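User: Run a structure prediction on this.
Assistant: Running it now.
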Amino acid sequence: MEIIGVDIGGTKISAGLIVNEKLVKIETCPTPSEQPKEVVVRAITDVIEKVYDPGISGIGVGVPGLIDQKEKLVIDTVNIPSWDIVPLHESLTKHFNKPVYIDNDANCFAVGEKHFGKGKPYSNFVGVTMGTGLGAGIIINNSLYSGNFCGAGEFGLMYYRESIIEAYCSGQFFEARGKNGGEVAQMAADGDREALKLFDELGTHIGRAITNILFALAPEAIILGGSVSKSYNLFEPALKKVLKEEFPYQRVSQALKIEVSDAENMAILGASSLVLNELLPG
């Protein structure tokens, strides 16, 4: 089977051709995020054309925002100011004459892990991305649950302390303290006490974010992705301490598996998985 996955970000657009579950070709271009919506759509179309093969079964697209699945419109997109209401589905379907599936990028991460990554063994799990913000996608009974307007899983926007969860569980945690997350991670790996203390604090906040997910869904597993997840070994002890000492339902927390994504190009693979999610339900 041949499918195309497209990852639309605020700074770049990437498209990949997947053949028999292998990513065989990738093309990338800058996102003309300050240009009119039609210019952005044209850029997406152009980068897809560079990897296009007439034999594809469909095109999956991950978007940093919400989707009106009924009207097939992209709405409320983050980091692309001109994208308030965009008929992306109509444009791509008309141009390529292939099935097109569009969803939120965090949802794409989850369904990508289900088809290509650490989510394969689990029927029910939550994929959590921790980068510039915190997003999540939900898999229930082996299928993606997107919710109304593809807005399910926005745990990062839940109120926490004086702000929201993602302010404490993403790169924003380090930025608010005038730090570079990558540099702090290296310092912590070298044994710097202040850096290790920061990761303990981060792990405590992430542990509490996970308790919210457990209260809401009690999944079999949580799969972490994004730049912050690469330092999991540094914040794991504090995270596990929260689950042990603060979460009341120990059978639920003890049964929980926490995995860290190790797949390369999961943004593209995840978007392509939207096609698989439709063609291969369950």
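The longest strand covers residues 22-30.
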